[in-house]
Amino acid sequence: MWDETLDRARRLAGDWLASLPERPVGRPVDEPLALDDRLPEHGTPAPQVLSELAAALEPGLVATPGPRYFGFVTGGSLPVALGADWMVSATDQNVAARVMSPAMATLEEITGRWVCDLLGLPADSAVGFVTGAQMANVVGLAAARHALLAGAGWDVGTDGLAGAPVPTVVIGEQAHSTILQALRLLGLGSGRAVRVPADDQGRMRADVLRDLLAAIDGPVLVCAQAGQVDTGASDPLDDIAAVVAGREQRWLHVDGAFGLWAASAPARRHLVTGAAHADSWTVDGHKWLNVPYDCGMAIVRDPAAVTAAMSLSAAYLPMGVADPSSRVPESSRRARALPVHAALRSLGREGVADLVERCCTLARQAADELGAHPEIEILNDVVLNQVLFRPRGDDARELAAAVARDGTCWVGTTVWRGRPAVRLSVSNWSTTPEDVRRSTTAIRRLL
Ligand SMILES: *Cc1c(COP(=O)(O)O)cnc(C)c1O
What we know:
The protein contains 13 helices and eleven strands.
């Protein structure tokens, strides 16, 4: 019953994966997809549905999991993680309550401890597996909101925010947009956050933070960042932690969607020194760890703080604070920890360090090869996996568009210090020095 359908899926997946190294990267679609938009009246055999869908979607797919996609911060999928992801769907476990899947609940706990170990975070932290860093930021800030208000004698879960002694939120000038979104979702208001200026690499200035905090009374929620999306730079977490530590009612959150992985590589670890002093952390699996999409981790030092903010209960639900759903906003949920676990088991501590280090080395190579062109200016200190550059003529967007049309690789654009710039992120396990060389050669030719 299953074989014909799954064999077909296996073959179609194989065709797609085999096309990744050489298909035009980020091929722009200028024709409408041949997708039938009418709801069918009659059924179609399952294998045929899969084949038809694969054919109809193919022209509009982007080789984001391929070795020369350098847009945003985009990892691919390690083979073992993709295989494990198939197991997630095949076993179809609901990791809301332990009783629904003791195996996956236990696996989440073990995997969470592994991630904390790799990132140098407190071993007893609660780790919730969520959709991505956006939701991990929501969880971290929700735990912070709950705890800070509880400290002021206010139960935000029951009484809401109207009339509450709302803590002051402090963020860096270069905080990620998902932090602002989390503040909006949590009723804390993105516009009310105090913004701390950043230095030329986008790092929050700890000296300014110190002065700002000195002028603020009452509870504060400080959001720092490990890995700015354009430069890869991390806020001076050690200094920030020291500044924040002097306060009674405070919470320090670190958004380290990709940057926190630096902690796993001995030669990059110094970039995030001090991260472990925070109260909550965000990290993505689907970026640098190269597991398939739908995987972020919300890590909170005090498990009671996150369960206070996230637990739900109903007479028919056998859920308590020990159940996986007590650490995340969702109730029903797929076994997101399985691909992470499989990736970590396959790579080992050394393999994760090697993956991170390799991407950083390739980013350095890209910066050197691009920077050798007289018309290209490298704008950042390439300390991690991000390269930020600009053609001297200021036509950054035109260059990126030409790169997209060419199809050798794909790079994104941003606005850095008021002017357009091109960003190149090396986050894929399968990228080789030859991929980087081909890509920088194409970019230089197009310039
Ligand atoms: C990518 C990123 C996010 C958002 O991650 P998603 O997984 O897309 O939700 C948040 N913060 C930082 C610093 C990021 O780089």
